[in-house]
Each structure stands twice: as C-alpha cells, then as structure tokens.
Amino acid sequence: MAFTANTAFEVKVSNGIYNGLQNVAGKFGSFSGSTFTPADISAGFFAVQNSLIPSEGYESVVDGSSNPLILNGNTWYMTAASSGIVAGYTGDHTGIYAANTYDVNKVISGDLQYNLGAKTLGLGIPAGNTGDFTELIVGEQYKFGAGNFASTPTVGQYVLVSSGKWSASQASAPTTGAIYGKVLRTEPFNEGASFWGTGYVVQILRSVASAG
Questions:
Q1: How far apart are CA 125 and CA 145, in angstroms?
Q2: Percent of the chain with pLDDT over 70
C-alpha cells in the first residue's frame, strides 16, 4: 500500500507525561491465519494491537506448535482499526493507536534504506519498519492533516473511526459505545518557517450505547 497524501499527526492537549504506556512500538500490517504481512501506514492512521512481536534474534525459539516463546514485553504487531470499538476497552483508554513516527524522510532501494534530510512532518512508517504508535485517550486533543479524514471535516461536527481514518463529519454524535472525535478548530501545520497545510484539532470522546 502507498502512503496517503496530506496526513499528519500531533498530540495537542494530553496527560501523556503521566501515561507512560500511551506510546508503544510496533510493526503495521495484516494477518492471514498466523502469517503477518507488513504494510506501509500513513501518519495519524489508526491501528490496534494484534499480538506481541518476538524478540529480535530469538524468533527461532518456538514451542512444539511453532509459536515463538520469547516475546517483547510491549512491542506489537498492529493491524488497521476498523471502527471506534475495541473489545475490552470501555473507558478512557481506547485501544486505538495513531501512527506517530519520530523518524526522518527515507528512500528505499531494494533492501537498503537511506535517510534524507530533516523532514519529519507527515511521515508514515514504511512496511517492515518498527515505528511508534500513540494511543488515543478520551478527553485528549490531537491534530490531524486533511488526508486523515474521508472528506474535509466541519468544525463543530463529529467524526468516527472507520477503516483506519476519520469518517466524513456528521452533525450528531454516535450512540454505539464507540469512541469518536469532535472537530474543535483548525490550526496550521508548520514545518520550520514553511506552511505545510491545514490541521484539524480533534477531541476524543466516547459515546454511550443506546438502550434500544
């Protein structure tokens, strides 16, 4: 998969200093049975934890069913978030993570990767690379690029998690128990002295499932 244009992610209003587990390392992709296929993930796209990654150098240490025995404590295989509901996460911790790499721009040639310059804004995580993922926390605010939405959002309206990005904005909040976002304001993304593009500051909220 190719990277999506005009995607970006920035933590705006957060209690992150006290949430030491809000940022985790992981590799993004998909599973077919037990086979993991790595894929690119664009900045700010949403993922969920699937399973722990084997510790590097110990992948061959397996049990009788070929399951790895030595796993990283908090480095995960990540897969696309299909909706705003993650089983077992019903509180402020959502279990939904945004790709948030702190790397620099790269060019890939065969098995080789080269770092290019100091560009960091809007960069995704290339397939097979370990990158950083930031959990969305209810009540916190994050800034996204236009490419992180299905269509240009409307300030004051609501957006839902859908297939790894925000849906088109809507006037009413959901009542499904899912997390969702309220678009609070626009704010420029700047890289150095240059205007990169318009950012949309979104507050994370959680709906209450309707009794019906």
A1: 16
A2: 97
Backbone phi, psi, residue 115, to 5°: -80, 135
Does residue 180 belong to any structural domain of this protein?
yes
Residue 141 bridge partners (DSSP): 13, 203
Q: Is residue 1 part of a domain?
A: no
pLDDT over 90 at 107, yes or no: no
> How far is C-alpha 95 from the geometric centre of its chain's CA atoms?
10
Q: How far apart are CA 92 and CA 138, in angstroms?
A: 5
Beginning with the edge strand found earlier in the chain, give each strand of the sheet holding 158-162 in spatial order: 9-13, 141-145, 194-206, 179-191, 158-162, 165-166
- Beta-strand pair 23-32/71-80: parallel
Average pLDDT across the chain, whole number: 90
Both structure tokens of 151: 């269509």
212, part of any domain: no
Number of domains in the chain: 1
Distance CA 28, CA 3 (A): 13
Q: Are 203 and 141 in contact (CB under 8 A)?
A: yes
Domain, as residue range, for 47: 9-206
- pTM value is 0.90
Nearest CA-CA partner of 76 in 142, 15, 21, 9? 21
Do residues 145 and 6 lie in contact, with contact meaning Cβ atoms separated by under 8 Å?
yes
In a domain, 86, yes or no: yes
User: Residue 45 and residue 150: Cα distance in Å, rounded?
Assistant: 12
The CA-CA-CA angle for residues 139, 177, 155, to 5°, reads: 50
3-state helix, strand, coil in the chain (%, to 5): 5, 50, 45
